[in-house]
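User: Stage II sporulation protein M. Structure?
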Amino acid sequence: MKIILNTNYKLMREAAFVKENRNKWQQIDSQTKDKDIPAETLADNFIELTDDLSYARTFYPKSQTVRYLNQLAGRYFINIYQYRKKENGRFLRFWKTELPLIMYRYRKNMLYAFLFMLAGVLLGIFSLQQESDFSSAVLGQGYVNMTLENIENGDPMGVYKDDAKGWMFFGIGSNNIRVAFYAFIFGIFCSVGTVYILFSNGVMLGVFQYFFYQYGLLGESAAVIWLHGTLEISAIIISGGAGMVLGNSILFPGTYKRIDAVQRAVKDAAKIVVGLIPVFIVAAFIESYITRLTDMHIYLKLTIIGLSALFIIWYFIYYPYLINKKTNGDT
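Assistant: Predicted structure:
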């Protein structure tokens, strides 16, 4: 009789132990399927499991609870091992998988950013058509006068021939990264700040190109400017898309709590901007060391522009589509 009572008492204690921890174990079990579980959560969950498993082994040996926790802890151990392997190749994985998947997830934001800049370009062209002094208001009177002087001297692209190549490279690179950072961080103002930067840069680009068109130099100027501009402008547009990711998370949090949506958006948008830093550096190098070679053969110029455009289209548009299709099976 005493043995039966002890057995029933132990079963009651085990049932209470299971009831108290069931929800926690189910949550941990569901997280074993999460490929992007943070390392901190992975470690905390494993500690919880091993503590509960030790308790169950002490008081309820050979029970179903011990077997269940053993299996769950085993799956988590495999997850930790896989996470460690992933971390060893994290740098490569960021460029190969992580950044492309983020780009695909926010592809609509990138399209909207492109359309806002395009609208600015069209407005800049239209405004200069209507008011000849608009170029001075946008580009600055000093820059306009210098360019007109270069045109008269037969060297319209002379502005790119600064002798201090190293300082020019550093200045252009840091300035472009700063513009990208502003386009991203100003998204905190519900995307309005990002839209303003995209639109204003688009107006400047439209005025700049139409200014040369007025002097019959559109083709010559475009072949020089877009040597670096293909990467530079594309990166600014993508940075603007990152800013809109941030802003839209505030306006449209979806099924997430607003604070959770913002934290997720900040993390993804920051990765996009970090991924653009090499693009800005290459663009600054081209502008400092290659764009100055204005007498370069037109076919060589078009080759550089074409390769730059192909890289942007492939890595930031088409490759994300392929990686998403391979990873998630979406089309």
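The chain is about 85% helix and 0% strand. Residues 218-251 form the longest helix (34 residues).
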